[in-house]
Structures are given as C-alpha cells and as structure tokens.
Fold:
Amino acid sequence: MKKLIIISVLLAFTNFAIGQDKKSAISINFGVHQTNSYKKLVYYYTCTEGCYPTQQKSATSFDFNILYTRKTKNPKLNVIFGIGLNQKGLDGLGMWDNGAGDYSPEKYNFRNTYIGLYGGVGYSLLNSQKTNISLGQLLSPEIVTQNYENYKKIALATRTNLTITYKLINNLSLVLTPYFQTAITKYNKTRLLVSSDYIPFGYGINFGVSF
Structure:
C-alpha cells in the first residue's frame, strides 16, 4: 500500500510538471465493494481440525487504484491503464470441531488481498465544460498476495466502470466511479474436499481525484 501511495504522488507531480495538456489524466481512487462468489459453498482453506461451511454471503472490503487515462484521435475514446489493491472474500457460518468430536457453529470471515493490473478503453457519454461521464471496460489480471497453496497466483477478471468527473479547477477534478467486476477464470487452484470453485464477482463505488 505504501508503495502504491508513493507511486501515485510521483505520478501526480509528473502530470503537473508536464503542464497537463488535456490529453491525459491520472486519477487516484479509493472506495468499498461488496464481493461474492458465483458458486457456493467455498472451502477457503484446508481445515485439519475438522470444519465445514454451512452458509456464505457477500463481504465488504476495500478497493484502491491509480488509473492513467489518455485521449485517442477519436475525442470520445480513451485508453486506460492502471494498478490497484483490493480484497475479496466471503462472510459465513460454519461448523467447527471442538476437539472432542462435537461440532459447534461459528462465524468466520474469509479475505484474500490482490494486486490488480488494469488495461482497457473508455467511451465518453457526456462531456460538458465541468462534467464528464464515461463508460469504461477494463481487463484485470489479479495477483494474490497470500494463500498461494490454494489459490492461483494470477487470475483474470474484467471491470466495468461508470466514471463521473467534475472539474474543480483547471488541473483538478473530483471523480465518482461505481463499477461491477467479475472473474473470467476461477481463482482457486483445486477444489478442497467437496468445495465449489471460487469465482468471485462484486460491485462497488470509488471516490477520487484526477490531475
């Protein structure tokens, strides 16, 4: 996270230094999203002491990204690249062995942290003097930062953004971005016991600034 913040600050100063020619912009965005899995129940780790999930629901986690947007020859079309950090997971209820062969219900929270890379295009739906609304479609390889034994190091997702930008001053805008993200590939290596594949999807909203 610290490295991403340092990179974002450097990119922001670089953008100011080149005079912001209006052809490109850098946005720093942070928000929350609700993630779930298309298939359930997901055994999210190997439980040697005896346990199994009985209920699972969507979980709330954070999302952070830095996006670089540049206009093309078509004034309505942009190319977008970026990097980010987010968590995905599930909240649920399961049965745990107390060591004596008796099972009792317990709540649990499952989270994996991912580094996301973004690349895609955006199309301007509305462009006025102060406000811009654009629709973006991004391909996102995601690199898991823990639980390597059970989850793929790199999985693939796609994210659809609706980006609303409001200009405050010449080189500074506020950004609001609701989005939907869905996995293209499964995120687990193999299914544990009778587990379903972990195929996450989610929706969220980010707030940010654009330079």
Summary: Residues 2-17 form the longest helix (16 residues).
